[in-house]
Amino acid sequence: MQPTAPGGKLIPVLPNRNRKGPTKFDSPHIAIWRSLSELSSEAYNQPVGDHGLIACLHCDLLQRLPDLAPGASARCPRCNKELWRRREDSLNRTLALTLAAAVLYVVANSVPMLGLTIVGRDASTTVIGGAKHLWDNDQQIVAILVLFTAVIAPALQIGLMLAIVLAGRRERPPRWVGALLRHHPTTRIWSMIEVMMVGVLVALVKIADYATVIPGVALFVLWVLVFLLAAMQAAFDSREVWEKIQWADEAQRPAAGDGMAKEPA
Amino acid sequence: MSPAAATAMQQGLQSCEGCGLLSRPMPGEDEGRPGEDEGRPGEDEGRCPRCDEELVFRKSASFQRTWAYLIGAAICYIPANVLPVLTTTTAAGAESDTIMQGVVLLWSPTGWPLSIIVLVASIMIPSAKILALAYLLVTAQRGSVANNEQRVRLYRMVELIGRWSMVDVFVDTFTAALIQLQPLMSVEPGPGLIFFAAVVVLTMLAVESFDPRLIWDSASSQAADSKEVTYA
Ligand SMILES: [Zn+2]
Ligand SMILES: [Zn+2]
After folding, report:
1. N or C, which terminus of chain A has less Cβ within 10 Å?
2. Which of A38, A176, A206 would you mutate first to test chain B, the one with the most B CBs within 10 A?
3. Which ipTM value was assigned to this complex?
4. Assigned domain for B228 exists
5. From the CA of B213, how many Å to the nearest CA of chain A?
6. B119 in the same domain as B152
């Protein structure tokens, strides 16, 4: 496989002087921090020399990732977990889908989602309105859960992804991108717009027994958002960003910047 | 020794849950050598040189934490199903429905597919999740070496479908938010809702705290034992 530097060019080994992070060449306070962290046994591990070597997170089998063509995926021979799927033009496509998702997200949360008419009276609600009603009825904890899974977690999922892809397009993404990337899977687990949409569908059918239901604009926007978020996640290849990111312990960063085994000629 | 048949822990290597990087603890840090029978190493190892995540061989206290969340979920499961989740007030009086009554009410010539969705998502998935996780915990703790592939597949299935239990929370939220037509009719959330939400959240946390690599550890160490001659 080619080195992952953009355009296939090699990345020079930079001296550590100007880099953040606890390296031996840093300013005194960082040096002190480093020795303190060693005392509390929080030193950095040493990466294995062979950068194609990985262990499956579902069964711990040591294995070497093969060279993959875009679109192809590698699975663990022992437990069949998908270890890596290489995406074509991942950062650009993810950026486009994330921007679209961000716009739809704002629309979906600012216009009514559901309305109803019954004997001349109207009512309508947004996603946030649903959570607020729970709050007003002494169901604060459930209200927070609904707000978190339907509003906050999707916002984080989109917002973090936007920051990751924008910064990840640089040649050497800064360390904070790694922190976002590390926490992004959590936002994905708790972002439940697709579950909410099924719930809304059931609620619609229930209410249709007593009243005329008027689907709001947000209802359609949210369905599109469900598919956009799935496409955004599918287009993103986190390994591409991990391979060029600035390391927490930059001194140990492999020179070639390549996650695969082959040394450049 | 062939690395293809070894696990990272047997080789003294830790893989990062944040970024996937494989790395070796600095010498002297892991006193209990991993891979040797009881040598499950201590908890505070080093950090990932790439993403700064704390590294461990296996998720810390995985069995204990997963059991704790699971027992909590099993306890909440009872009030979640016995207490009403919605109370409907009309001129004729108030009526409270549990989750199961909601499923029955939804059953009609047109509504039955949704009734089945709610039945599966609210009644079957939470109980199946609790049973499946208990089975995974018991077999892993007893060091079972059978059906490893099926068990890790079961784990992934639980991970994938667990979130769908939230459907009923959203149904009740939006039904209650919309039907506010006092004095004609109003719907309010009931006391069962918080227990039901707790079951969903606790089982999701249980899934996150379980380390599927524990399923394989007995089989891995047996494989290593049988190859002892090659190792020595
Ligand atoms: Zn595996
Ligand atoms: Zn890492």
Report:
1. C
2. A206
3. 0.86
4. no
5. 4
6. yes
